[in-house]
Amino acid sequence: MRDEEREQRVRPGRPRLALGALSGALAGFAALAVAELVAAAVRPQSSPVIAVGAASIDTTPAAVKDWAIRHFGTDDKLVLQLGILTVLTVLALVLGVLAVRFRRAGAAGVLLFGAVGAAAAAGRPDSTGLADVLPSVVGALAGAVLLYVLTGRLTVVRRPSMYGREEVPEGVGAGLAASTGWDRRGFVVVAASTAAASAVVGGAGRSLNASRGQDAVASRKKVVLARPGSPAAPVPARAALRVPGISPFTTPNSSFYRVDTALVVPKVDATTWRLRVHGQGVRRAVTYSFDDLLRRELIERDITLTCVSNEVGGPYVGNARWIGVRLADLLAECGVRPPSRGGPADQLVARSVDGMTIGSPVEDVMDGRDALLALGMNGEPLPFAHGFPVRMVVPGLYGFVSACKWIEDIELTTFDAYDPYWVKRGWARRAPIKTSSRIDTPKPFARPDAGTVMVAGVAWAQHRGIDKVEVRVDDGPWQQAHLAAEDTRDTWRQWSFPWQATRGSHTLTVRATDRTGTVQTDRRTRTIPDGASGWHSVVVTVD
Predict the structure, then answer these.
(1) Is the entire prediction scored with pTM above 0.70?
(2) Closest by alpha carbon to 439, among 508, 522, 520, 533?
(3) Are the beta carbons of 469 and 440 closer than 8 angstroms?
(4) Dihedral through CA 445, CA 448, CA 451, CA 457, nearest 10?
(5) pLDDT tens digit string along 290-322?
(6) Which of 116, 143, 153, 144 is CA-nearest to residue 201?
């Protein structure tokens, strides 16, 4: 056949390239929608966006994670997912443009990203096996086929005919009447059908994913927390100051900070939940059910928790009333002894249902402090976001070395033998909470009127207690603030200072002294590796 008689593809113009980009976006939307539906049949965590997001969290340097928490707070996970969707959208647009000229290459690109999602899902610590790769694989296949079909409606080839050379949409027979240009009607039909079907499939997937947690929700509603055998003492009346703008002594569940790596909050059915205790020094592995814990003596304590990602003056600290079982008693019944009494294990590794591992010093857990396997928070079963059905609470230690949520496994081992999740990423193995204080009111850049201005806030040094808080105005002398009554040494204390404010710009600074006599240091350090330090200051302008 002579060269001029061979089929030749017509170079696409800008309109068809734009529609190619649209085809890529529609194919990508369809791929994610199908993947969401398949994930509903497998488990929500197998969704490619969730799997890739979780893998991104695991591989992100600690400094970047710290930056994200500092700038986005508890919205960091939403920002991450939106970022992933944005990147996928851009790539889908590029693949769509590519597929206008190279259909197979465009479709192969979609399959490649499906493989990335499948690898991310299979590589998760909580992966359930090959089933986790199905959403990414099936979604990518659907997206690749749709991109191939859609861009086929946009592809024009020149073929020889009895009348000479004619342009017809690829796939249309040369013996048909000549119809130059691409298949507009076919493209519109396929594109509209794809968009509608994807919306339906994606909506069904989200609905089914939401319904998967109904058994867990029902199990939580049925939980009745028995009266604790060791109730918390009533909070002293003078522990809560009546100063507008100060943090409440007890942080409501809805306002309690949440910092973890779970993109999807695990919803665990308490009726099927189990906790396994095993490892060095354990006479034999023991498994507990939720009912087993409910039948034990419950204790109730007010305990302040702090996240190691909390910057100086930051919001990631809160106080709650917890109810649960003594962790030390449960470990002792399994034969565990602390290192000071000859026990072979110095590290307790707690594992969550989402694969998180958190290591705690055995000595601290068993030294007499109120370390808990908590079942309730502020008078109700744990909220799902805070670890239902069971989590660890250990006063005096930052959460990354103590506060495992959705716990399902406790292994006794050594610090030399195993590095848990955060240690592998450059954080400290042991992290007692540093003596800290914060100014809650006035807020930074506030403009109070001249006269008496109440400066107030909170200070904490869990398991040591706060002995003194001092305030300094500009470069003046330190002046002692009024301390609210102490509840326990494991809770924060409110403080206040009546400042006789004069007109102009002023810097207010606070520092605390704990019960050991240690004065809060002015040396500024980052949160990595064992918590931030430094004095909290605010600048205000007095009118």
Answers:
(1) yes
(2) 508
(3) no
(4) -70
(5) 999 999 999 999 999 999 999 999 999 999 999
(6) 143
